[in-house]
Write a structure and sequence with these properties.
Blueprint: H1 8-32, H2 37-52, E1 70-73, H3 79-89, H4 129-142, E2 149-154, H5 162-172, E3 178-184, H6 193-196, H7 202-208, E4 212-217, H8 221-228, E5 239-244, H9 267-277
Parallel strand pairs: 1-2, 2-3, 3-5, 4-5
This protein binds thiamine diphosphate and magnesium ion (MG).
Length: 283
Amino acid sequence: MEIPPAGPGRATWLKHKANWLRLSAMTMNHHAHLGHTGGDLSSADILAILFLGGILNIDPAQPRWPQRDRFILSKGHGAAAYYSTLAARGYFPVEQLRTYMDPLSMLNGHPDRNKLPGVEANTGPLGHGLPIAVGAALACRMRKESWRVFVLTGDGELQEGSNWEAAMTAQHYGLDNLTMIVDRNRIQQGDFTENTIRMEPLAERFRAFGFAVEEIDGHSSAALYNRLSHLPIEPGKPSCILANTIKGKGVSFAENQPAWHHGVPTSEQLALAAKELGVEVAW
Ligand SMILES: Cc1ncc(C[n+]2csc(CCOP(=O)(O)OP(=O)(O)O)c2C)c(N)n1
Ligand SMILES: [Mg+2]
């Protein structure tokens, strides 16, 4: 796929793509009368860089190519943004996004690897993506292959203990082919993370569990690109990127509002979002 050369042109192009993912996800949630808009909007820049910005070594024409990089959306409730990304990358026609959550659609409320090309793991129950990613990274090591594993988690999701068991395993095996990205939007279901179960000091916690950690602006395509194109952060250690984001990013009425975790836009809100994001969705 065509990616503009490095520079301000590429940053603008990626921002436009990410905003298209945002509006596409909101349109899907609107039609389905269900969805997780806030987390779709916070993750869009990360998904855009990985899939459309040339980070992942993948081939949509061969979704099961053995040497591909693996991406796992651990926060499976962010499916609408993820499906929009896979369609934009060419895994299936964008028109199929219209079928989101329809009976017999490939686009379930949460991703299903048996139905949709490009999906590596069935997720939705929180706390499973990192354990699966660790297993994949270890398998890669044992086979002496060179593909990499990327996993995107929520921040509230890290309250699931399974993540910390997986983190211990990743550091034990020195899995520097594993990169976890945390969508650190500071909101979970119902409230801010720090009011629910405090996550800080999150960077120090991951360091103590043997990860190389870096905090970046999760809405800056330059920061994301620079970090993700120079991995691992430290040889011999799994990488953890704490991507500081805003839940509901880009849409004034949804930004930083816990209620928009599950919020579904009305027709009027969708029109306002389109205006604010400066994109059109025509599928
Ligand atoms: C094991 C489990 N418990 C509860 C839920 C219901 N649930 C869906 S999303 C969510 C909140 C997730 O918050 P966070 O990880 O911060 O995601 P984001 O802010 O990126 O949407 C919850 C509790 C679930 N999917 N899985
Ligand atoms: Mg969150």
